[in-house]
Amino acid sequence: MAPDPFEILTALEKPDVQAVVCLAAVPPAKRAAFFERLNADLHSLREKTGRPHWLVIDEAQELTPRMDAQTARSAVRPPRTPFIVTTDPSAIDSRIVDSGAT
After folding, report:
1. Paired residues of 56 in beta bridges
2. Burial of 55 from C-beta contacts in 10 A (0-12 / 13-18 / 19+)
3. Alpha helix (H) residue ranges in 1-102
4. Along the 102 residues of the chain, how does pLDDT read in single tens digits?
C-alpha cells in the first residue's frame, strides 16, 4: 500500500516523531509526481512548524528527475535537504544540486 501523505504530515507535525517513508509501493513511473506533491506539503509544514528539520532522499534520481526549462519554471521549489543519495548524479534535477542543499 502506498504511503498516505496526510499520515506522513500528521506524524511530522509532532516534534517527538520521526518518520521514514518508503515509496516502494508507489509505481516507479508515479514516484516523481508523488514526491512533488509531498514536497509541496512538506514546504508548507516547514513554514508553519519549522519541521521537518532534516530530509534524506535516497534514490533521488527517481524522485527529482531532470526537468526541461518550461517544467522547472512551474515546478514546486526543490526540497531543502542536506542529504541526497543517488547512483546517477547527472539524472538529478539541477535545481536540487544548485540549491546549495540548505
Report:
1. 83
2. middle
3. 5-12, 31-49, 60-63, 69-74, 94-98
4. 899 999 999 999 998 999 999 999 999 889 888 988 888 898 889 889 888 888 888 887 787 766 555 455 555 555 565 577 888 888 877 766 665 544
Taking the complete model, does pTM exceed 0.90, yes or no?
no
Name residue, grid cell 526540497. Answer: 79
Question: Which residues, in sequence order, are CB contacts of 76 under 8 Å at separation 6+?
Answer: 36, 39, 40, 43
Among candidate residues 36, 44, 41, the one with its CA nearest the CA of residue 62: 36
The grid coordinates listed for 32 are 516523481
Per DSSP, the residues of 10-24 read: HHHTSTT-------T
